[in-house]
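hey can u check if this looks right to u? its 531 residues, i copy pasted from the old doc so theres a chance i mangled smth
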Amino acid sequence: MAKYNIYKIKSNRLAQVQNLLTIKGYRLVSETESNNFKMEAYFTPSPTPTDIWWLEQYASFFEGFADRKNKIYSGAILAYNSFDKSIYLIALGKTHFYIQPHIELDFGLNLAEKIANPGSAKTKSTKKFAGNTSKAITSYMMNSPLRFASGEAAEYVKLQATDTNIWGRSFIHFGTSVHFSSITTEPEHIGTLLNRIGNNLNDKEDSGVRLPRMLAIKDPAQIKYLDEKLAESVLNGDISNSIGIHDYELYGTDFVFSQATQVKLKYKDNNSNNVFTSELLPELSFEAIREFFQNHTLDIKNTLRDVRVQVFVDEKSKFSVNLVNLLDYLSDEQLFLFRGKWYLFNKSFIESLQSEVDKIHFERSSTIYKRSEHQKWVVDNPSEKVNYPEKYLLNELESQNPQYLQNDRELDYKHVNGKNYSIEVSDLINENSQEIVIVKIGNPKDFSYAANQSLLTISQIINNKYTYEKDNRKIEIKNLTLYLATKNKTLPEKLSGFNSLNFLIQLNELSINATEKNIKLKVILTQYTDN
C-alpha cells in the first residue's frame, strides 16, 4: 500500500515549476518514465536550517543546546505527459508550500465529484457566506451522507471512493490536491494512476457528489476593480462586515492554524530594491497591517498584492505567502477572495441557497404605497419631526392595526463580541401577538440592512425575551416580520426571485438564527411607487 499527495499543475507552468524548485534548493536527482509520463525526482540535499523557537525562549532550561537548528528535507515527483499535456506533482516534505501559485485549485474537488461516495463522509471544510463569511471544519460519524447547508461552499472533503477496488478502502482527502492514504499502485506505476485520474476527470459521468463551489474570475478589469475595493476595506477592516482574516489556511489537504504561528510583514520595492519589514507579530491583524503601510508610507492600492507574510509554524518549517492569500473578502456583487484570487459561486451553491430561502413564510401584499401620498402626508402632518418614507409607512401600518406600537429609532446599546453597538430593536411592536416588525423601503441592498438589523436583535434574545439595557424593560418576542416595500415594478413570485445573492444569504442566515431562537420568521413584500 502506498500514500500519494498529488497536485495538478496548470498546463502552461511546467518550466516555472522546474525553475521554482531549483531556486528553492531542490536538485534533479533522477528521471524515468511511467505509462506515457516523464517523471522527474527532486530533492533538497542541503536544506536551510530553521530556528527552533522554543529553544530560544527556554534557553535557560536547555543550556548548551540553544543554538541547535532543524533541517527539513523535502522532495517532489514532477510528472508530465507529452500527449495530453497534463502535469502532476507529488509533494513530499514542505514542497506544497511553494507550488500554490502554479496549481489547479479545483483539482481535488473535481475528482471528488467523479470518484467519491457521497454516503461516506468523514470530514468537510467549508466557507460559509451568511452576512459575514466564516470557515468551519465539520466531522461526521462513520458512513454519513455528505450534506451542505445553504450558504456553504466546499473547499475540502474527506470521503471514501465509490469503487474501493480501484482507489483503496481508506478515506481520500480532496482539497486543492488529492491525498490517497492507502492505494495499491506502487511508485513504479505512478503513470498508470495519473492516467486513471485524468480519464475520470474527463468522464461526463459523476459519482453523485454535488459540491457547492466557487468559480474563478478572469476578467482583468473586474479583478482590478475588486483589488481596489479590497484595499479600501483593509484600511477599515476592524469595522467592515465584508472582510476578515483566515483562522486557518489549507495547503492541499493540510491545515495550518494561525494560532500556531508568528508572522512578519515584508515588502520589496522593485524600483529602489528597498525592503520593508515589520517586527515579529504574534498574530496577523488589520491594526498591524495598517500600521505597516503607514509606517513605510506605502500606497496600499498599488502595493497590497506585493506584500508578503512570513509565517513561522512552531519549529517545523518557515514559509512566506502573499498577504492577500490570508484575507477573506465578500463584495456586494457576491464575488469573493480565496487565496488571493477572485471567485463567484457555482450553480449548486446558488440552487441550495434559493431552495432554503423559499422555505421562509412569504406573503405578497396587494397594497401599493405611493410617493405622492407620502408627500401629501408630510404636508398634512407638520408636527412630525421626521418625514422619511419609512415613517409614513409605519403610520400607515399602525392605522391598519392599532395593536402595533411604534418603536422606530428607539436605540438600545449592547456590547457584542467586544464592540459596542447601538441597536434598533424594531420599527413596530405588537406585544399581544409577541411580534416585532422591521420595515424597509428600497431595493435588495436596503433590505439587506433590515436583515442585518434583525440579526443583531435576535442575537440578544434569550428565552424569547429582549431586555433593554437602559430601563431593564423586557418584551416577549415569538414572531419576527420583515415588511419590505420594493420600488420594483413587479413583485417576485418567490423570495428567491430577488436578484441579490447578498440579500438571500443574509435572509437565510436570519432564518437559521430565528429557528434556533424558536422565533417564527415572516417576510411580507409590497410596493412603493414614485407615481
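The chain has a mean pLDDT of 82.
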